[in-house]
Amino acid sequence: MHEAKRLQELFNYQILDTKPEQALDAIAEIASLVCDTPISLITMVDDSRSWHISNYGLDLKEVNRSDSFCQHMLYNTEDLMIVEDALLDQKFANNPYVLQENGVRFYAGAPLVSPKGYVLGSLCVVDTKPRKLHARQLQALKLLSRKAMDYLNSRKLIVLQNQSIAKQSHKMKRLTDLSPGVLFQFRNTADGKGHFDFISDGFSLLFPHLRNEHVYSNPNALLAYIHPDDVANVKKSVDLAITQKTNWHFIYRTTDLTHREIWHMVKARIEKSDDEETIWYGSIQDITSIITHDKTLGDVLFELSHHLRKPVANILGITQQMQQENLTLPELQEYIKMIAQSAEELDLFIRQQNSYFNDQKKST
């Protein structure tokens, strides 16, 4: 149970099989210099091996756990482990790394203890001849092991933070990619050049003929697909927004591969960074349906007014005429007949329009 928890704690540091790190290499080298040994190691012990995070003076990346000196330190969080002559210690006398030519004779290790109290490995110094360390060297070895553990704890925190940021970034990207239209971040550098830092996947729907990666570094490629009559106004509005540091809001036309006219609305908030760069946070939306709806609504209103004008004018004219005359009963009946005809004409038109719109609803 304890070993399973210790291994889980070790794996949480995500240090196994990573590249050498300068700060840990420096600690290992200092340990050798202080203790006057040719070899020093910072070692992590997993379930089957001792893996050397830092390796000073020994060209060996790992050893089997069963042959490791460090495995004997895993359940002692306080004391150093000192082996002054491995050939005289029954735990190590038959160790292959002791018996080999120029084998290990001296070992001194300080435990690497996690905040939860688990020993993950050790900082150790090794020599090929028997020896002793004086008290100051032993104290230095302890202090250096704590310094190595401080670094590993800070590294673990950074790794977890980066993973959290990456996870949140992935979630945010999924949200932005599902949002209608395009979300983007654009950067103008101090020398007047510009590039996109981010473009959401909605870009491929608004500009199916362009590739995102091409536009990232060459934003002017977009101008080729803006309606020729709008290009100059788009450039002018961009320059004005940059000069005045105002938010950008503009409507322009594009054309697709079928030469169909498409309307886009772009909105962006502009911020200036400390290094004189201008950053744009914005969106692009296809508003063709809105433009088409407004145009269609205008056409419908014009058509309605055109058809309603005649019967309404007739009714108004008749009523005005009736108010100005002293009508006899036959004349009054004639006027009423005329009003009824205009009203029937108006009613017929309204019923026809209702029938048409009901048919349209059913078809959609």
Q: Which residues sit in consecutive blocks of at least 5 with pLDDT less than 50?
A: none
Question: Biggest sheet, open or closed, and with what strands and sense?
Answer: 6 strands, antiparallel
Principal-axes shape call: rod-shaped
SS element count, helices: 9
Blueprint of the fold:
Elements: H1 2-12, H2 22-35, E1 39-45, E2 49-56, E3 62-64, E4 81-83, H3 96-99, E5 106-113, E6 119-127, H4 135-178, E7 182-188, E8 194-199, H5 203-206, H6 212-217, H7 228-244, E9 248-255, E10 261-272, E11 278-286, H8 288-324, H9 329-363
Antiparallel strand pairs: 1-2, 1-6, 2-3, 4-5, 5-6, 7-8, 7-11, 9-10, 10-11
Helix pairs in contact: 2-4, 8-9
Brief account:
The protein has 364 residues and is an alpha+beta fold. It has helices at 2-12, 22-35, 96-99, 135-178, 203-206, 212-217, 228-244, 288-324, 329-363; strands spanning 39-45, 49-56, 62-64, 81-83, 106-113, 119-127, 182-188, 194-199, 248-255, 261-272, 278-286. The strands form two sheets. Strands 3-2-1-6-5-4 form a six-stranded antiparallel β-sheet. Strands 8-7-11-10-9 form a five-stranded antiparallel β-sheet, sandwiched between helices.
